[in-house]
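ok, trying the design again with the full structure, not the truncated one.
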């Protein structure tokens, strides 16, 4: 399994813009992603994904530990990115859709 990129996404809240917060993320190897100022639409994709993830994964499972959660989350992310049929890509699996898009390009 590939090593996951650690990413945190937030709005433009003042606490997310503080240098100590940004430094703490960097020390942990976490990349910060932040919505653009005055534009709520770039956050919509993340909000949609987290809604799906919570309903398909988080609320349906119980986890024995943080490590167990991380392991299961990595499994879910692999499933979501490679096997889950998605309406926005004409009900193809993401792997099929990307392969088709590369052939057309």
């Amino acid at each position: 399994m590939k090593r996951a990129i650690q990413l945190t996404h937030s709005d433009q809240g003042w606490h997310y813009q503080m240098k100590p917060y940004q430094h703490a993320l960097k020390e942990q190897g976490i990349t910060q992603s932040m919505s653009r100022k005055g534009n709520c639409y770039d956050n919509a994709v993340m909000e949609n994904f987290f809604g799906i993830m919570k309903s398909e994964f988080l609320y349906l499972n119980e986890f024995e530990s943080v490590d167990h959660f991380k392991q299961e989350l990595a499994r879910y992310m692999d499933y979501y990115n490679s096997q889950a049929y998605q309406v926005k890509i004409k009900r193809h699996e993401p792997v099929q859709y990307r392969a088709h898009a590369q052939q057309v390009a």
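Keeping the full-length input from now on. The CA atoms of residues 17 and 34 lie 9 Å apart.
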